[in-house]
Amino acid sequence: MINLNCQGGSKESEKHIVFFGNSHAEHYFEFVSLIAKSKGYSVSLFSSGGCLISTESQKCRTAYEAYSAYAESRDITLIAFRWDTITESEIELNALRNILLEAKKISGRVIVLAQPPMLAFEPDKVYNCSRLKIPCEMTKSFIDDNSHNELIKKIALDAGVEFYDPFQNINRSELLSKDNKVHYYDSNHLSVYGARWLFEQYQSNAVNSVFQM
Question: Is the pTM of this model over 0.85?
């Protein structure tokens, strides 16, 4: 899927957010759009699932070129990728540094979003086992490794931009599910329910608001 200027937030607002990334921008879009609407920002999403930062495939280049060309009235630039897939590649890390420097030239603020905690199991498999009444042995837990976010945070801060982790200081007892609504659709992507739950957490933790000006 390629998203070229998918609109969210307060669509008529003159305060504008440009959101760029891969599927991790897509799964955050509902969360960002809800916050933006509450704060009076419009949002434009430019993304393509499965892309690394330096990927040269047609679909990835199309998303990047559309994002790069959309410089008008950009108050905030948000960037989100699956960071654990690039931390071992100096090519990808340098590509990230370049994107951050480019964004700083045309945007009032540049904010890099952390990758969500990753599951140690696939929730869709658990659902299918339950649906088909097949006994499945799966431990419902999270992978306890945040080194990728720490590295990306350092790169962001070194570049003079912001890093925001919406999962800090939240109620982790509800991180997987609440009221029978699962917050992940696979091991590393939020579901729509998860994005809406994260917005509720954001509202109750306003001191860490990414949109405080």
Answer: yes
